[in-house]
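Discussion board: Methods & Data

I've been asked by a reviewer to show the raw model output for two of the constructs in my manuscript, not just the figures. I'm not sure how much to include, so I'm pasting the format here to get opinions. Each protein appears as its amino acid sequence followed by a line of discrete structure tokens. Is this the kind of thing reviewers expect to see in a supplement, or should I convert it first? Here is construct A:
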Amino acid sequence: MLIAGFSLDCERLPAALPIWRATVRSETWAVVARGVATKGGRLVALWGSDRTRGAAGGLVVSAAYAVREGLLWLDLPLAERGASYPDLAPLFPCAGRMQRAAADLVGIAADGAVDRRPWLAHGAWPAASFPLRRDASAGGAEAAREVTDYAFVRVEGDGVHEIPVGPVHAGIIEPGHFRFSVVGEKVLRLEQRLGYKHKGIEQRFTDLSPLDGYRLAGRVSGDSTVAYAWAYCMALESVAGCAVPARAVWLRALFLERERIANHLGDLGALGNDAAFAFGLAQFSRLREDWLRLSKEAFGHRLMMDCVVPGGVLADVERALADRLVRQCDTIEREVRDLRQVYDEHSGLQDRFMTTGQVLPQLAARLGLTGLAGRASAQAADLRCDQSWAPYDQLAVKMATRTGGDVAARVAVRFDEVFESLRLIRTILLRLGESDGGSEIRGDLRLPAKVALGAGWVEGWRGEVFVALEWDGERGANRIRRCHCHDPSWQNWPVLEHAVIGNIVPDFPLINKSFNLSYAGHDL
């Protein structure tokens, strides 16, 4: 089959979006990667797996690419000795950290990789042990590898000094270490050290019933609970060949758009506050709180956790509640339009926002900047538009993009997406009220008695969330062999290092918040 311009022996997974999978050899792995990069495709995820089953199988490295036809999932089986594969970092710079994580967790290495420092391994497990290998042992504290200093890149020269920040921060935020090399207040270089939130989520999936895995997926990154739960359920439904009731699909979109708005409202207030505009924080915090309270009343949870379940959804929307949700949309839209005018006309805010933390379109394309931050740098990619799945194929989503690539552009995209999501919610609620497709909100899901693969791909508020699922139903095993969850923060954290160059240190919190990347979703 011809995918991304290559003739590959692909199978199409029975997913809601067009997702293709193929097993390739080392030469094909490198050729396809080069071809995808040349044609402007994106690397969505890279991960390793141990598919050893008795005397068969072995280590595998996998990559998922976003191409014109949809998503292309490639598996490259590796030799038992060496367990190496061609390096993708020269073509996709964001692959570097993903490859380092795969080396820490599975023990597979990228041939010719320049950076081989550990990424997720902070001395919590033995150096010769790999947590996602079949033969991995739990070990104890006495067996852990020696904790050594991380080899940060040093910048030398007259007047250059370092400012270490974190992983413990002054505010109530997640842990991450930032090493600034500065002259005066001007940033010459930033280097990040992440992985402090690593908690073994991928291994934990293999201990859970597949029908309970959605709860863990929804807690990978709490601000994206709907997106992760939907992606996991899509992968599981793909494995089972389960048809999701039409009403449930519309309700999932309702939850996803409410999640998007909740996060944008929070960010718009925080960005105002980081620019010393406390009024913005107060107003947007009030609006977000009203939004979350109605979500709690309507769906049982402020963040709508556990509302998306395998086969459908847990909660429906009655007519009276739908009317309240529409009225809230009207109220929020009026107030956000007024606040946008305040933001746009406030000279102090605009002075802090404009040209700050700029990532020009050319750099964004080269580094693979994705999601909301990518769209603010002219990277026009949104699954709701590009590979629209039900019900987005009936909603004609208008993509919000900007070309400036600075904090101002990322703020503008948030405002635009709030208004578009409000429109979508009204349309969804109208469609639910008119629905004649029955009231069923959850379908039966029966997993096959064989080995099967499934994938989920959803446009969350931060960017595209991807879940790859390997199911083993042979000989009564009935267990998840591997579940890899991928957050768009993997692509965007390295770009933040470039965005701060040439800016002053006090602007870093503002730039960082304008990206608002996940630590937990990245570290797993």
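Construct B, same format:
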Amino acid sequence: MRLLVLGGIRSGKSEVAEALVAGAGAVRYVATARERTSDGGWAARIAAHRQRRPQSWVTEEVGDSPDRLAELLSGAKSEDTILVDDLGNWLSAVYDTAGDWSDPTAADEPIAALAGAVRSCGAGLLVLVGPEVGLGVLPATDAGRTFADASGLLNQRVAAACDGVALVVAGEVSWLRGGELVQHAGARETPQPQEPAAKPVEPFVFESTGAGSVLSTADGGDTLSFSPGMELPLPDESTAHEAAERLLTLRLNGAGLGGLVPVVRFAGGVQGRPDPRPFQQPRLLVLRGDRTGGFAAGDSAEAADRRLDEVVQGNGTLAMLAAGAGASVQAIDCPSAGPAELHDALDDTGVDAALTLGWRLADAAANEGVDLLILGSCGAGADAAAAAIVAVLTGAEPAALLGRVVDSSGFVDDAAWMRKIGAIRDARHRIRSRSREPHVMLSMLGGGDIAVATGVVLGAASRRLPLLVDGPVAIAAALVARDYGAQTRHWLMMPDHGDNPTVKLAADVLGAAPFLALRLGLGEGATALAALPLINTALTIAAATPLRSATAGDEAGNESDGLSEQERIESEIQRVVADSPTAEMPYVKPSWED
């Protein structure tokens, strides 16, 4: 478990971090501060930290060699407990070593290396302490501004690689993410080093009971257990029908919303009201889970890093579209997967952890008032893994499912496409005699991002939270989630399949018909974000347009033809659409084609 503890000056963040690791017998304390013999106050601070640590802890000093921190984390073992205090001193050492505090980009490469080391750290428990510079006083100098900017970037990168993030203010702890993984010792002034270690919250567990599954707290472990036959809620079909019928009574100037009628119907069902409202708090979850082997041919972890960095820093297409749609963005670093053509992508423990993470992400979003989730992805080899899952579950030919491979320079790489297809076929051959049970599918082929996305779909359905899906990872996860609980597919809406063959087939199997045909290829999640303003426009029109009122002439007409007001409106709309000449208009060659 990887935890980041942030706080301002003298906030108590170090004491909180020490309490989190206090229950471990042996702790590797990584001190990042540099010795300053000329600064008596600084030396006194370091001495106080040293005196507070238990004698059983092993201290490693990296202040004079900041590059060693990434090396220590990368070489950690599963039995290790590591406490790093703190990232601010480490960043100062990076700039001191570089010898240039005027260049804001001087720390970019060390920050990227450290975030990668945190992501891959194999320690059983890793706790990092960092300063939240927005809560401290910084000098109005170039060096101060450089440190503030770099510290903010460092915190974002490390937070994206951690399972939990806490903010400490005046000794009080607020978990920004992952708080359910750690049951803190409650409100107190200053945690003492010898307090018991934090214990995980007892989770809900799904237990099979034949006719379905029930929620219980029987298992005291820190992961949830998932099995087929889960009983999940369904959208309200009666209000969905009422929402669609209500559109026929609106006082519109034209024939109606056309292809956006399914949007209103869907929103009516998931919101449980015949006049659904626009989605006010959407959230984009960007999942990054890399693969090795043939599945990742033509892709690169560096390109995935760049895309994730753009999300974290608020740059790039996804961030731009999210800002335009008013959606919050959360980046999730998922477990990496091995070469599925040689062995299983994830072990059972990894699948359980990924499903649990996805479930809790959806649960946390619902608790925060999010009313719509959007799934995005940026991992290497994700398209091949999704195509493999869809091919195995539907019997389709992989070559017909995997789209063209475009490398990081924007060129089509047919050789990489052939390697991916070969890897998918080898993986299918390897698992030909094994079960198609969803847990096994995620282990054999899925990888961390698809497993986390499956957990998100299941968790969202359990909290009656709708999802927008538009890419291979999300649709493959939805196909697997259907085998855990068939109700999940009713909480999904697809704006457009982007002409992706994997998405088109899986959506057809799930009955998720797209309502647009934009054929966007901007990365998974982009089409949903681009369509969200249009979705909210349709819902605004449906909710705000006044209803038609019957006139005397209408009443007389209804008496003469025997039709109700609603039947008459529907009949008139059908007549107008049927009589429209646009469908049979001949093609007229424009002058610029000559």
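Answer (T.O., handling editor elsewhere):
This is acceptable in a supplement if you add a one-line summary per construct. For B, something like: The first helix runs from residue 13 to 21.
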